[in-house]
C-alpha cells in the first residue's frame, strides 16, 4: 500500500501529525527495496509549514483520493466527508480515509473498509495510546473481517456471507472446516457441534444457507490451444472442466499455457475473462501424458492431483491442497504499457492509465513525469532519467518487459503526440526480436496539452486544426517552415508544441513571421502554461500582441483561424474563445 498523506489545517495538529508520520517512516525503512513512497505531512499554505503545502483543502483531498493515496486527515470527520462526497458515488477503488482529532484523542476510520482502513486505525490508535472508533460490527466482535479473506482466498457469495455474519452476531457459533489459518487469532464463537460452518474448499458451493464458503485459489488450469481457439472457446473449456470436477470458478488460481503461445491474444483475453493471471511454462517430455498435464508438472513445484477429462483434451487441471501463489508458476508474459498522464492533475488522467500504474512493476520516463505519476509503491522500481535519448529508453523498456516485468512508460499529455509511443514502436520495428514481439504492448491515450488548454479557453479547436511541433531537433527547419506556411494558408487553427527553448531561441519568432503573412493581427491566440499543474495560467491575446517572450517551453500556443472569436459573458468578466463549427 502507498504511504498515507497526513493532512493538517493548522499548527495545533502538527505534533500529532509528526507522531503518526514517525510510525510510517519506520515502516518505510523496512519496506522492500526500491523507492519507498515517503509519508508526508501536507499543510495548508500560509497557516503552517510542513513537508508539502496545499492551497485548498477540498481540492487537495479529492486529488489525493483520486490518486488512491490513503488519507489521514487531522480535522473534523464532517469536513473530510463533505470534501470527498462528490467522489463517493463512483464505486471505484477506495483508499483508506481516516479522520483524527488534532490532539490525537480520537481515531475514526471513515472509508476504505476493504482497503484496510480498520487496520490503519488500530495501528495509529495504538501509537497514540487511544481506542480506535471501529464501527464495522463483524470486525468489532470477531477482531477480523470474516468477509474479507486474505489474498489467495475468495468468498463464494457476499450476500450469503452477510447473512452468515449477522447470524453470528445474533449469537450463533460456527465450526470451521478446512484450512483457514487467518482465522486462528479471530475471536469467533466456535463449536464443533454448531449448525453454522465456515467451509474452506475448492468445491463449488451448493447453495446451503448455513455455510460460509471460502474458496482457496488452489486450482491451476493448463491450456494447450494448438487448435488456436478463440478466447470464448478457451473460457468455455476451462469452465466445463472445472464444473465436471465439481470445482468452483473462484478456486481457479491461474491459467497456464506453453511459452510458445505467449503472443496469442486469445489466451490473454481468456485469462482476462476468467479474471486470473496468465502464466507460461515449457512442457517436459514425459511420455504418455497430455501436453497440458506435462505443463502442470513442470510449472507446479507443490504436490498436486492432476484432473483430466477426455471431453476436453487440451485442458488439464491441477488441484493442490493449499492456495497457490500464481507468481511461483512459470513466468508471466511481460507487458509494456505506454501511458499519457494528461496535462498534470489526477482528474485529467484516464482511469486506464491509473490502472496500468497500479499494476506496474517498473516505471520509466523523464524524472518530472515519473514524479507526476506518483505516489508509487515501495515495491515498484523507478527508472527515472533525464536521458533525452528516447530510443534508448524504449529499448530498455522492452528489455525489462521481455523479462516478464510489467513496465509502464510515462509521457505527459497523450503518449502518441510528440512523445514516447512512436519511439517505442520505432524501437520494436527495428529490433526483429521475438522476445520483444511477444511482449503485451498497449498504448493508453491521454489528454494532450492542446486539448487541455483549448478546454480552459473554450473551444478554439472547434473546427479543423493541426498540431505542430516547432522543435527542429528531429526534423529540418525547412520542413517546419513549409508546414507552417501551408497550415496558415489553409486557415487551420494551429496548436504549437515545443514552441521555444533555450537551445532554440529564434525559431518561434520566425514561425510567427510566417503566420503573420497569412493571418490578421486581430487573430485570436491562446497561451496555456502549465495547464493542469500547480500555478498554471491561461492567457488570451491577439497575434498582433503576441511576443516570443510571452512563451516558454512549458507553454502551449494556439493560434486561431480567421473565424476564431472571443466574447465576454455575464457580469463577472468570463471570456470564451471558440472557433465556430461552420465556415463561410
Ligand atoms: N505528449 C505531450 C506533448 C509533449 S511535447 C502532450 O500530448 O501534451 C512538450 C510540449 O507540450 C511543451 O513544450 C508544451 O508546448 C506542451 N505542454 C505539455 N504539457 C503542457 C501543459 N501542462 N501546459 C501547457 N503546455 C504543455
From TrEMBL:
Pathway(s) where this gene product acts: Cofactor biosynthesis; adenosylcobalamin biosynthesis
GO molecular function, one term: precorrin-3B C17-methyltransferase activity
Keywords associated with the record: Cobalamin biosynthesis, Methyltransferase, S-adenosyl-L-methionine, Transferase
Coiled coil segments of this chain: none
Name this polypeptide is given: Precorrin-3B C(17)-methyltransferase
Keyword Transferase in annotation: yes
Span of domain Cobalamin synthesis G N-terminal: 60-138
Pfam families named in the record: CbiG_N, TP_methylase
GO biological process entries: methylation
E.C. numbers: 2.1.1.131
Domain of life (superkingdom): Bacteria
Tetrapyrrole methylase domain: residues covered: 335-546
